[in-house]
Amino acid sequence: MANEDNLFKNVIAHAKEYGFVFPSSEIYDGLSAVYDYGQNGAELKNNIKEYWWKFMTLLHDNIVGIDAAIFMHPTTWKASGHVDAFNDPMVDNRDSKKRYRADQLIEGVIEKLEEKIEKEVEKAAKRFENFDRAMFVTTNARVVEYQKKIDDINARLKDAMGNGDMAAMKQLIDDLEIADPISGTKNWTDVRQFNLMFSTEIGSLADDANKIYLRPETAQGIFVNFLNVQKTGRMKIPFGIAQIGKAFRNEIVARQFIFRMREFEQMEMQFFVKPGEEMKWYEYWKDKRMKWHQTLGLGSENYRYHDHLNLAHYANAACDIQFNFPMGFRELEGIHSRTDFDLKAHEKHSGKKLQYFDTEDNQNYIPYVVETSVGLDRMFLSVLSKSYVEEKLEDGSERVVLRIPAPLAPHKVAILPLMKKDGLPEKAEAIMNDLKYDLRCFYEEKDAIGKRYRRQDAIGTPYCVTVDHQTLEDDTVTIRDRDTMKQERVKIAELKAKLVDACSINNLLRKI
């Protein structure tokens, strides 16, 4: 755990030092759980967006994209359930004065029990040559006991969350003897519900009639535009609507860098299907979204599914794709079968029909919805944290390198004249002027070439092109690979095609 904490601290420090992420309003001592993306961070973020957007709208001819407004009519949030039910159960420790999500404290106990099971499995696997995990976890007395505790805690948590029973949740915290990680005491307040929406006023009068909310999710902008898109696009069920946009939640416990923020960005797609076919599409999107993530090459072992035991009020099935962040496996993307809850609720509150006429069945119905929702900031953190490597080289020196997948890297290629004389800068600039229409390039001529290589390693530039005196003689350059540090001589005429192919997002998409 100590190593993971150090890794996370190093990633955060690196993100600031190399222009990826800055604390917001830092000259005024910052603002809690709010961050700005620097020059390299903005590029990485845009490349992630492009990878997602192209996957959704280019690879699927029945998915289109929109960009809905952040401000929406306040009845939207009454219909969606956010006004009445968008709450987190919070509990305070009287000694540390710190506030926590009650359900996350309880889930922390479950995680520790799961870790104990894994340790028992690992020990047993080393002892037995033909180890049968399935048999072991159902027959080993200690593992069975741990699993029984997990099942009991999950059942009680699900019941308390489902019934909104804060007293039962407090009792569960007491029964599990959960201690505050800071004070070490179990001196807890009662569990209370906190609504997470930010409110503001629209217009000139600050009264309830003018009260609106900053959207806590992007999905509702899709639902209220369901018929607009369906009719103008002549879309036929099944079809999807995709959107990338900002959302805002007044997180009481915001922590872990950009993992949980008050202002964040979502990449969501709502897929409208015929009632009764939602589970087929739910499984389809689970599989497709996992492949999309794993194609980046960050390690298939760093992803896993986690089925929800406590379903949201709108869902009949839900799971997370979890990623192995520096602080352990956490939610990266959610896939939910939302039934017809949203469209039905908006139809009721607006008085407008939100139904689809199926020409094949000659009937009207409210479609069911399967949602995929990935946090862009969490996606950014997953790429950054798994790409960060502190490497000791054969000559005994060390380097820090970001092994960001080439199609996502902020800069694809650095153009480096070996020296600032003899016509080398002019030749390097000519090469860059040719490449910059197809690739984001970085030009640098200051310092020794080794130092420049290290700087490019640190911001994740996959290729460096060095222009030297031989270039002037035979129109060849040296390409250095970031990950292997190997160099090869390439003709300038072949340079563009080689780099464009290596850095193409389309090549990623073809692998999915």
From TrEMBL:
Enzyme class: ligase
InterPro entries assigned to the protein according to its UniProt record, in alphabetical order: aa-tRNA-synt_IIb, aa-tRNA-synth_II, aa-tRNA-synth_II/BPL/LPL, Anticodon-bd, Anticodon-bd_dom_sf, Gly-tRNA_synthase/POLG2, Gly_tRNA_ligase_bac, GlyRS-like_core
GO biological process: diadenosine tetraphosphate biosynthetic process; glycyl-tRNA aminoacylation
Organism taxonomic ancestry: Bacteria, Pseudomonadati, Bacteroidota, Cytophagia, Cytophagales
The enzyme's E.C. designation: 6.1.1.14
Chain segments annotated as coiled-coil in the UniProt record: 110-163
Binding site for substrate: R101, E217, F264, E265, Q266, M267, E268, E371, T372, S373, V374, G375
GO molecular function, one term: ATP binding
Keyword Metal-binding attached: no
The protein's name: Glycine--tRNA ligase
Gene assigned in the entry: glyQS
